[in-house]
Amino acid sequence: MAYSHEDQERIEGFAAWWNRYGNTISIFLIAVLVTAGGTKAWQYYQQKQALQAADLYALLQQVQTSEDAAKINDAAQLLTTGYPSSGYAPRAALIAAQADVQAGNNKRAIQTLQWIIDHAKETEMHDLARLRISGILLDEGKYDEALRLLSAGHGKTFAGLYLDRKGDIQVAAGKIAEAKLSYQEAIDKMSKSNNYFNIVQMKLDALGDSD
Question: Where mainly located (predicted)?
């Protein structure tokens, strides 16, 4: 096919332009394609990880029915070590800690709950873990340590529960007047529609006029 002089000049001009900028453009296009492909690959990886974590959590729930603390901890560890950033990991740790408390292994239960505080992304899980640890410390008679733990910052949704636990600890320590104040504060923080509201009110009423 014959080209006109004008077409020939355009072709030569494009060739010169491509020789100058072609490599840069190619590298840019490759980078775009790799990034797009990498994003899809990463999304696929995340989805696969989430499904695997969900499967392991379902397995843990099955193992939980055995009430065997060792087996429950083994199953939970698959999540806390293999998928620590997933939302299932701290929930698995809660199940494992509960099993240990029931088995009388408070030390390991506290270590597991501390893992939640150190690794969970959800602040609510931190608040719940501290509340659970304070309950263990209460049962062990470590009142001062439990109260110090409850003094840590927590979300508003846990305010009433923290004050209620504080009251329980103060009752156990014989500090009745302080306990009454804590229970009253807990009631003030809770909605009357909260099922726990009446329980805290009963605790306060049970103290009567005692000091």
Answer: membrane
Residues contacting residue 202 through CB under 8 Å, at least 6 positions apart: none
Topology of domain 138-211, per CATH? Answer: Methane Monooxygenase Hydroxylase; Chain G, domain 1 (1.20.58)
Give a three-class secondary structure readout of the chain: CCCCHHHHHHHHHHHHHHHHHHHHHHHHHHHHHHHHHHHHHHHHHHHHHHHHHHHHHHHHHHHHCCCCHHHHHHHHHHHHHHCCCCCHHHHHHHHHHHHHHHHCCHHHHHHHHHHHHHHCCCHHHHHHHHHHHHHHHHHCCCHHHHHHHHCCCCCHHHHHHHHHHHHHHHHHCCCHHHHHHHHHHHHHHCCCCCHHHHHHHHHHHHHCCCC
Could you report the per-residue pLDDT of 172-189, keeping only the tens digit for each?
A: 999 999 999 999 999 999
Where exactly are the structural domains of the chain? 25-121, 138-211
CA 126 to CA 157: how far, in whole Å? 12
pTM of the entire predicted model: 0.76
φ and ψ at 140, to 5 degrees? -85, 0
